Automatic annotation (TrEMBL):
Chain ranges passing through the membrane: 75-97
Keyword tags: Membrane, Transmembrane, Transmembrane helix
UniProt lineage: Eukaryota, Fungi, Dikarya, Basidiomycota, Agaricomycotina
Keyword Transmembrane appears in the UniProt entry: yes
UniProt-recorded name of the protein: CAP10 domain-containing protein
Natural source organism: Mycena indigotica
Length: 315
């Protein structure tokens, strides 16, 4: 083996870069030269004339900042693990939860409106009750009352003619004030019928029709311009109705003008009293002041019928 010339001050070689340090250490071992002392933490051997020590490997690994980064590695690992877990959870939620469709794009063409209208009508007809039991249950649920007399016959009558079975919420709301008056004064409507029956030949176009044993007839002295049509219309289903007297207004304007949404008990008391000397004789009047002075900041308890005030209710 040929001799290798080594500088006598090999121990004074400054290891300034990390790669060159790794290359020089095997060379020193092969030459049999002593390695720099490591008595001090990662320090180089001191030169004979040097008064201060230099690091053995002046590299990023030997610096204090690297040691702090090494100690922080577990924290970084935990943060990465938590982030990965959150991302996996969000991905699983997107895959497992039911998909909600985005906003529907509306086709503005006339054909689309026609198709939408037909679809709406088809859905309306499909959701109607198909059995008497189902129709009776829905009637109780919506109105809070049992079905009326001969409801089974009404159900058959409607089915045979392709009529809607359940869609009468508006009629229920319109009749709600009358139901309330009947509960507070059961004889109220009978008195109104008796008063109208006595008004013969008064030229007020107030038609009265008697339904008895399934037939319909007009009371004497109550003829009006539409009597024939009312007799024909009522005769189509008079066999289902119980015995009763029907009073019909043949005029265009209403006979009773009453603000049922006016709050307070006075309005109900006023409705039950027949104070007019000539009842059912309401002539058209100017209506610009009809709603003047009505309360506008009143909280009502119910949306239908004569309301009660809820302003003084505590939360």
């Amino acid at each position: 083996m040929s001799a290798v010339s080594v500088p006598h001050d090999v121990h004074n070689i400054g290891f300034r870069s990390f790669p060159s340090s790794l290359l020089m250490l095997p060379l020193l071992r092969r030459l049999g030269l002593p390695l720099p002392s490591t008595a001090h933490d990662r320090a180089l051997a001191l030169d004979d004339d040097a008064e201060t020590a230099e690091p053995l490997l002046d590299s990023p690994i030997s610096r204090p900042g690297h040691r702090r980064g090494t100690r922080m590695f577990p924290v970084v690992r935990v943060l990465v693990l938590v982030s990965a877990t959150v991302l996996l959870g969000l991905l699983a939620a997107l895959l497992l939860l039911p998909h909600r469709p985005g906003p529907r794009v509306v086709d503005r063409s006339s054909a689309s409106f026609v198709a939408a209208a037909r679809e709406s009508i088809a859905y309306l007809r499909d959701r109607q009750s198909s059995t008497l039991t189902q129709a009776s249950a829905r009637y109780r649920l919506r109105s809070g009352r049992p079905p009326p007399q001969n409801y089974d016959k009404w159900f058959t009558f409607a089915q045979e003619r392709g009529c809607l079975i359940d869609e009468y919420d508006q009629i229920r709301r319109d009749f709600q004030p009358f139901y309330q008056l009947a509960e507070e004064d059961p004889g109220f409507f009978q008195r109104m019928i008796d008063s109208a029956t006595k008004m013969n030949n008064d030229k007020k176009d107030l038609g009265r029709y008697d339904i008895r044993n399934g037939g319909v007839g007009e009371a004497p002295g109550t003829s009006n311009a539409y009597s024939y049509y009312w007799l024909e219309t009522l005769g189509k289903f008079s066999h289902i109705l119980p015995d009763l007297t029907v009073v019909i207004n043949a005029r265009d304007q209403p006979r009773v003008v009453f603000d049922v949404r006016q709050p307070g008990p006075y309005i109900r008391q006023r409705a039950r009293k027949l104070t007019e000397n000539d009842p059912f004789n309401v002539s058209p009047e100017r209506t610009q002041t009809y709603f003047a002075g009505k309360p506008g900041c009143t909280i009502l308890r119910s949306p239908d019928g004569f309301p009660d005030i809820a302003n003084d209710d505590s939360a």
